[in-house]
Write a structure and sequence with these properties.
Layout (H helix, E strand, L loop, with lengths): L1 H11 L5 E12 L2 E12 L2 E10 L12
Antiparallel strand pairs: 1-2, 2-3
Length: 67
């Protein structure tokens, strides 16, 4: 159901709309704490850019959503 709702929303976007999807992760292992991120930028349904990276070990992950 959620996938169908997303597809309906995605297909209804005007072609000039910019949408950014992002995600982050925080993990621990013997070497310490690792924090990373990734993102994808779309204009309409065309992929414009992607990126990923690591953040310093003092960073923390939090969940936010902007509409």
């Amino acid at each position: 159901m959620a996938a169908a709702s997303f597809n309906d929303w995605w297909n209804a976007l005007p072609p000039n709309t910019v949408t950014i999807f992002s995600d982050g992760s925080e993990s621990y292992d013997d070497a310490g704490k690792h924090v990373g991120y990734g993102y994808a930028i779309y204009q309409g349904q065309a992929l414009v850019a992607t990126g990923k990276g690591a953040i310093n070990t003092r960073s923390r992950m939090s969940l936010t959503q902007k509409r």
